[in-house]
Design brief:
Layout: E1 2-3, E2 8-10, H1 23-33, E3 39-43, E4 48-51, H2 52-67, E5 77-81, H3 85-96, E6 101-105, H4 110-120, E7 124-127, H5 132-141, E8 147-150, E9 161-163, H6 164-169, E10 188-194, E11 202-207, H7 208-219, E12 231-234, H8 241-252, E13 256-259, H9 265-275, E14 279-282, H10 284-292, E15 306-309, H11 316-325, E16 330-337, E17 342-346, E18 364-368, E19 382-387, E20 394-395, H12 399-404, E21 412-420, E22 426-431, E23 436-438, E24 441-443, H13 445-452, E25 458-468, E26 472-481, H14 489-497, E27 510-512, H15 529-537
Parallel strand pairs: 3-13, 5-6, 5-7, 6-10, 7-8, 8-9, 12-13, 14-15, 15-16, 26-27
Antiparallel strand pairs: 1-2, 2-18, 3-4, 10-11, 11-20, 16-17, 18-19, 19-21, 21-22, 23-24, 25-26
Helix pairs in contact: 1-3, 2-3, 7-8, 10-11
Amino acid sequence: MSDIDEFVISGPKKAYTVTFDSLGKYLFGCLKKRNSDQVFGVDVSLNQTVTCGSLLEKSVKLSIALKKMSLTKKDVVALICENTLNSFACLLALTYIGVPANLINFLYTFRELKHVFNISKPKCVICPQSNLANVLSLKKELKFIEYIILLDKPEECVKDVEDVESLCRTITINIEEFEPVDGTANDTILMCLSSGTTGLPKCVELTNDNFIAIIDFLLDNRCSNNAFDDVTVSVLPLFHIYGVLIYLTAAVSSMKLVTMKSFKPQIFLKSIEKYKATKLYTVPPLLQFLTINETIKDFDLSSVKEILVGGAPVGNALYKEASKKLKPTLIRELYGATELGGFCAMQYGFETVKNSGPLVNNMLLKVIDPQTNKSLPAYEIGELCLKGRSRMKGYFNNPTETNNSKDEKGFYRSGDLGYYDEVGNIYITGRFKELIKFKAFQVSPVEVENVILEHPAVKDCAVFGRSDNKTGELTTALIVIRDGFTATEEEMVTFVAERISPQKQLHGGVRFVNTIPINPTGKILRRELPHLYISANQ
C-alpha cells in the first residue's frame, strides 16, 4: 500500500496476533505450556541438553534470587553474555521481574565495558569468568555497581561474587505458584548496543510494547515459516538483536535450538548433520562459508530446507552463487536494524532478483533525498526511513541522539541507501551513515579513532570501512604522524588490538597520510577517505 502524496509504502496492515503488558509473563506462559521433558536446546560447547522444564525452573529460581537483591524495573542489569542457554536463562529471569537487561559482548575490553556501564549504570553485572577481572576493577571505580554474578562455575572463591548455579540452589519454588511481575507497555525490558548512524555505541531501549510487534513477526508463518519440528544450529550471539530473535523464536515456537559459543567450522557442520538442522540463521560471511568451503561435501546437510541471512547486505555475486550451489535450499534475505527491534523486511520465497523482500506487517517505509529530505517515488535511491510499533523507545539517557535518529513524523533514519520497486520489494544499495559493518558486527569509526589518538605519535586520524567480499567491510585507518615521531603499520595495528575487541580492530590495515580531509566545522569528510586511501597506496 502506498501514500501517493508522501510516497510512503506499508507492509500488510494486520491485527496483532499477540497482546501483553509484560514480555516476561508472555515468555513464562509459552514455556509453561510446553512439555517439561521436551528438549528446548543443546549447548554444544558444554555438551549439555536443556529441556523446557529445566530452563523454566532455572530462570524462575534465578528471577527470585535477583528480586531478593531489591532489583526493580528502575534498575538495570548488565548481562555480558556468551552464546549459551545459560545466558538465555538469565535474560528470561530478568524479563520475569521486569528489570531491563543491557546485553553486552563478552569480548569487550575494559575500556569498552566502562563506556557502556557509564551509559546504563547497572546495579548488577552478570558475566562469564573471562570478564570477571575487568568487572571487579570497574566495580571499585564505578560506585553504582553493587552485585556481580558469574554465569559459570567460579574458578576460585571471590568475595562478594555470586554465581548462577549457587543462587539457584538456594531457592525452592513451585512453578505453579510463580507469577512474573506486571508490566506496562512503555517499560524498557531490553537494551542492545548500537552505534546508530554516527558516534559511539549507544543503548537501544526496547519496551514491552515493541515486543508485541517483534513476537508477532516471529509467529507469522509468512515471515518465520516455522514448522513444529524445526531445528536450528546457531552461532549468532545473544548480545546481538539477531541472536535475541533466534532465542525468542525457540521460546515462542517449538523450534529446537542448538547453540555454540563461537564458530568452529567442523563442529558447526557436524552439528547440522547430527541434529538434522532444518533452518539456519546466518550472516553474509557464514553464507559464504556454506557456499564455497570445500569441507561442506564431507557432511550431510540435506536436512537444511531454509537459510535466512541478515545482519548486513548480501552481495549480488554471493547471493547468485549461494542460490545456485545450495539449491533446493531456500535462501531468504532479511533487512532490519536494532533500533527497529530486528527485522523490517524479508523475502518470502525464491527470488529471481536479489532484494530484501517486502516490508513486514504494519511497517512503514519512505525513501528520502538526504539533501532535501523530500520523499522519493519507486526506483529512486535515497535514505531508508522506517516506522512501526517495534521502533525503539530511544537511546537510553541520550535524548539528543534519540531526537536525531528520527524525523518529525517519527520515522527512524536508518542511514542506509536504497529504493523500493513497484510491488514494494526493498533494495539496499549502500550506506549513507558512517557505521562500519564487519561480519555483521557494528563498528563505530569514532570509537576506533579515539583509541588511535591515544598513541603519542598520532596527530590525527580517520577510520572507514573498506569493501571486502568475505567480511563486508574492513576497518581501515588513515593516520597523520606528529612531527619528530615515527610509527609503523604493524605498531599501530597492535596498539589498537591491545585496547579494543576483535571485531573492531584494524583488519583493513593502516595508511599514513599528510592530512585528514575536514569541512569548515571540523567534521571528517568521510566520503573522501576511500579516495585518500587509494592515493596513499600509489
